[in-house]
Amino acid sequence: MAGAASEAQGAGVPQTGADYLASLDDGRVVVHDGQPVDRVAEHPAFAGAAGTIAGLYDALHAEGSDALLAPTADGTGRTHAFWAVPATRDDLRAQREAIRAWQRSTRGWMGRTPEFMGSVVTSMAAHPSFFGRFEANVRAMLDRDQRAVTHYAQALVNPPVDRELPPDEVGDVFLHVVRETDDGVVIRGAKAVVTGAATAQRLLVSHFGGEVQTDAFAFAGSVAVGTPGIRIYTRGTPARDDQPLAHRFAEHDALVVFDDVLVPWEDVVIRDAETMGAFNRGAVGWNARLAFQAATRLEAKLEHIAGLAVRAAEIMGIDERRGAQAALGEVIAFRHTVAGLRDAMIEQAEPSGESIGPGVEAAMAFSALAPDAYSRMRVTLETTLSSAFAHLPVPLASLGTEAVAGVEPLLRGSGGADARERLSVMGELWDAVGTGFGARHELYERSYWGQPERTHVGILGLARATGRLDGWRR
């Protein structure tokens, strides 16, 4: 990874935006819409997201960045605060603010920003002995990736075939270990819905969704995206210049194929079915850390949507209608609920290995609420603003051109907005809700935690295990 060896990291600070962009030119194999991609950072489908991520790294070096940073584990460097292992509730509060700063700059539209996988790596590092013979690897992974603030994608989900079978019985598709060598582990198979793989630096490869039965399918490790044998396949999400959100924030879900990929032993963290199962069930607390980051991201997205929706209602002249006010209030209430559950995770925090972890009850409540609430929010906006979403006959950039001049008087704004502001607000809101980008985000939020019933069953199990149910029966 080019960024990991940068002068910036040698000085004890994370990679810069330039380091990150250079690291994408590592020989990775990416196929987008069936066509090979030569340079990911320059390709129209990926350049917007790559540039946005580069801007996040540069923010770590900008004036006033101290609020985003925390010491590395050995005290010799600085990292994004969420890449530090928290020891107190105040640490969690500092991490909340650092996540907020990045997420508000992306309006919460990028789910796989570089702090995202800090939730998993720091949880692993807080429970190093859990990984047995790979304990040293886990500690080294934190040291390396914490310093760089490595941009990871998670490769966890099996392709949607034969899911009625254990993963071990779908060896022609699902990822598994082919053989072990003196140099490392050779893996083969595929992972689906690997969001942001094309613009990531490393993949956390593991199994989730269906318990593995044999050690042949029990593998977790950190793999550089440019490793020989990895192929990334993505399908287009519109990201035209006149789609303001998609142009900057579109992340592509990918099918990642591993064709006899050698993973060095120092990058392996799990190689047995028992540890794999316990890891997936949350033994090291990564689930709650992930919910903490996800809630802070969703808070930023909902703030952006609510702000756009309120301004759209003012421009349309419906902001004084009781029904519109109730709908807008419901959207804002969703934001407050998400933020409140995230803050409850801090207040309910408990010791977790060598760290303090966000409260599990609040984390699971968030994961149960958010998917359906996001879909309801989208329908609420479509119902309230209705055809105003679609009344965008020209893109903002076309104002003043000869072909559009004749219709410009009809495009005038209202509610204190001129035509330019009206098209800007409605165009961005349309991209958030009505385009393929907006539809993909609803699917993303709905499927973020997998099958909803799994979450609900887990909540029931937790209430039984903690004695909550017994107390309520008295």
From TrEMBL:
Q: Which Gene3D superfamilies match?
A: 4-hydroxybutyryl-coa dehydratase, domain 1, Butyryl-CoA Dehydrogenase, subunit A, domain 2, Butyryl-CoA Dehydrogenase, subunit A, domain 3
In Pfam terms, one family for this protein is HpaB_N
Q: Where is the HpaB/PvcC/4-BUDH N-terminal domain?
A: 16-269
Q: Which UniProt keywords apply?
A: FAD, Flavoprotein, Monooxygenase, Oxidoreductase
Q: Which GO terms describe its molecular function?
A: monooxygenase activity; oxidoreductase activity, acting on the CH-CH group of donors
HpaB/PvcC/4-BUDH C-terminal domain location = 285-469
Bilayer-spanning residue ranges: none
Give residues annotated as binding FAD.
195
Please give the superkingdom of this protein's source: Bacteria
The record's annotation in SUPFAM superfamilies points to: Acyl-CoA dehydrogenase C-terminal domain-like, Acyl-CoA dehydrogenase NM domain-like
Quick check: keyword Secreted in the entry?
Answer: no
Question: Which stretch is the leader sequence?
Answer: none
Q: What is this protein called?
A: 4-hydroxyphenylacetate 3-monooxygenase oxygenase component
Annotated organism of origin: Agrococcus carbonis
Give the classification, highest ranks. Bacteria, Bacillati, Actinomycetota, Actinomycetes, Micrococcales
